[in-house]
């Protein structure tokens, strides 16, 4: 891996803030950005010129490889403000490790840890007014890397741009979602990029998700690419099934994202002596459990949505409804996670990371 450049972080502040123009009670997820962003270029074999600057457009050649081959990866993380005005991140080291793991899979050079953490914490400090208090409010943080070398030869870029943007957020999905179990399209395959947060991995979901939407389902539950027999992820999230009082979720593999919310839910469940089975979960056992009344809950788990309960799923054109559980596992883990994230409860696992 390239070593840290030990270069000084250049900070260029915006002349004025746009925060007064933002209605924080009516945010569309990921469409409003804070005053500043971070940018760092990879050239001549090293990351250089780490800079925080006012948020704004980039000038990039249309010949840059990212536009032709999608050589790009990203992360999703959040900053939270507690009732005393302190700002926290949640398990940021996990996101740092994962973006480098995703980069490796996409032949992108890894990013140095010291620059990542200095840039991230400085950026959050500079734009701290953009983190609003209150459960459900957060500043969604989007680190990403893209290939900027000009040239359409199909080979890894020699130049990259690493950036961090920040966007004030409220809930990602509002209400319970209806999902369709994938029977034709696939999200990932053995040996593919499913475990990476590669940009194209998400773009490839848009078309099948649109087809599901036309039928009245907001998301797709992805199944294994070979036979569509096993349940793997839900939309952009990991997925959990509660059968009676046992929690089931697919094991991490090269098809499945090692989600930070996923592993946090598993840790909370195990702490509370809930049986968790990380194993292939078949469509047939979940359909069977739905028919005989043992399927109590399905929920997605991800950074953007935290926990997203599923109200119905469709398989072979039959819709199976799930009763909303105010006191179920989904709502309980969501509250426990949000309380930790917002510094409203103890942090027994040491997940909170204080920024200021
Ligand atoms: C996240 O939960 O961070 C995601 O990856 C969702 C994102 C695609 C909006």
UniProtKB/TrEMBL annotation:
<dbReference type="GO" id="GO:0052655">
    <property type="term" value="F:L-valine-2-oxoglutarate transaminase activity"/>
</dbReference>
<dbReference type="GO" id="GO:0009099">
    <property type="term" value="P:L-valine biosynthetic process"/>
</dbReference>
<dbReference type="InterPro" id="IPR005786">
    <property type="entry name" value="B_amino_transII"/>
</dbReference>
<dbReference type="InterPro" id="IPR043131">
    <property type="entry name" value="BCAT-like_N"/>
</dbReference>
<feature type="modified residue" description="N6-(pyridoxal phosphate)lysine">
    <location>
        <position position="197"/>
    </location>
</feature>
<dbReference type="InterPro" id="IPR001544">
    <property type="entry name" value="Aminotrans_IV"/>
</dbReference>
<keyword id="KW-0100">Branched-chain amino acid biosynthesis</keyword>
<keyword id="KW-0032">Aminotransferase</keyword>
<dbReference type="GO" id="GO:0052654">
    <property type="term" value="F:L-leucine-2-oxoglutarate transaminase activity"/>
</dbReference>
<dbReference type="InterPro" id="IPR036038">
    <property type="entry name" value="Aminotransferase-like"/>
</dbReference>
<comment type="similarity">
    <text>Belongs to the class-IV pyridoxal-phosphate-dependent aminotransferase family.</text>
</comment>
<protein>
    <recommendedName>
        <fullName>Branched-chain-amino-acid aminotransferase</fullName>
        <ecNumber>2.6.1.42</ecNumber>
    </recommendedName>
</protein>
<keyword id="KW-0028">Amino-acid biosynthesis</keyword>
<dbReference type="GO" id="GO:0009098">
    <property type="term" value="P:L-leucine biosynthetic process"/>
</dbReference>
<comment type="function">
    <text>Acts on leucine, isoleucine and valine.</text>
</comment>
<comment type="pathway">
    <text>Amino-acid biosynthesis; L-leucine biosynthesis; L-leucine from 3-methyl-2-oxobutanoate: step 4/4.</text>
</comment>
<dbReference type="InterPro" id="IPR043132">
    <property type="entry name" value="BCAT-like_C"/>
</dbReference>
<dbReference type="InterPro" id="IPR018300">
    <property type="entry name" value="Aminotrans_IV_CS"/>
</dbReference>
<keyword id="KW-0663">Pyridoxal phosphate</keyword>
<dbReference type="GO" id="GO:0009097">
    <property type="term" value="P:isoleucine biosynthetic process"/>
</dbReference>
<dbReference type="InterPro" id="IPR033939">
    <property type="entry name" value="BCAT_family"/>
</dbReference>
<dbReference type="GO" id="GO:0052656">
    <property type="term" value="F:L-isoleucine-2-oxoglutarate transaminase activity"/>
</dbReference>
<dbReference type="Pfam" id="PF01063">
    <property type="entry name" value="Aminotran_4"/>
</dbReference>
<comment type="pathway">
    <text>Amino-acid biosynthesis; L-isoleucine biosynthesis; L-isoleucine from 2-oxobutanoate: step 4/4.</text>
</comment>
<keyword id="KW-0808">Transferase</keyword>
């Amino acid at each position: 891996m390239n070593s840290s450049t030990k270069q000084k972080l250049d900070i260029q502040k915006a002349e004025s803030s746009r925060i007064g123009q933002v209605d924080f009670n009516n945010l569309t997820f990921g469409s409003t950005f804070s005053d500043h962003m971070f940018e760092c270029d990879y050239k001549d074999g090293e990351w250089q010129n780490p800079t925080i600057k006012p948020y704004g457009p980039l000038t990039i050649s249309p010949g840059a490889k990212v536009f032709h081959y999608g050589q790009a990866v990203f992360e999703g993380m959040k900053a939270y403000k507690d009732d005393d005005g302190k700002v926290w991140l949640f398990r940021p080291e996990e996101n740092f490790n994962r973006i480098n793991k995703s980069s490796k899979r996409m032949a992108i050079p890894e990013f140095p840890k010291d620059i990542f953490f200095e840039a991230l914490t400085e950026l959050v400090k500079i734009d701290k007014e953009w983190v609003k208090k209150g459960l459900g409010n957060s500043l969604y943080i989007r680190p990403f890397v893209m290939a900027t070398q000009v040239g359409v030869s199909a080979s890894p870029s020699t130049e990259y741009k690493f950036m961090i943007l920040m966007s004030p957020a409220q809930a990602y999905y509002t209400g319970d979602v209806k999902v369709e179990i994938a029977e034709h399209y696939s999200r990932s395959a053995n040996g593919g990029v499913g475990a990476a947060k590669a940009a194209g991995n998400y773009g490839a979901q848009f078309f099948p998700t649109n087809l599901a939407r036309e039928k009245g389902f907001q998301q797709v539950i992805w199944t294994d690419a070979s036979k569509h027999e096993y349940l793997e992820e839900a939309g952009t999230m990991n997925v959990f099934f509660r059968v009676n009082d046992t929690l089931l979720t697919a094991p991490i593999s090269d098809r499945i994202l090692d989600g930070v919310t996923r592993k946090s839910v598993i840790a909370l469940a195990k702490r509370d002596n809930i049986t968790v089975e990380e194993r292939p979960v078949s469509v047939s056992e979940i359909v069977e459990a739905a028919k005989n009344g043992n399927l109590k809950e399905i929920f997605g788990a991800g950074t953007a949505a935290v926990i997203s309960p599923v109200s119905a799923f469709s398989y072979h054109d039959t819709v199976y409804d799930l009763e909303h559980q105010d006191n179920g596992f989904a709502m309980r883990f969501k509250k426990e996670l949000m309380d930790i994230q917002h510094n409203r409860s103890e942090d027994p696992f040491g997940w909170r990371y204080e920024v200021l």
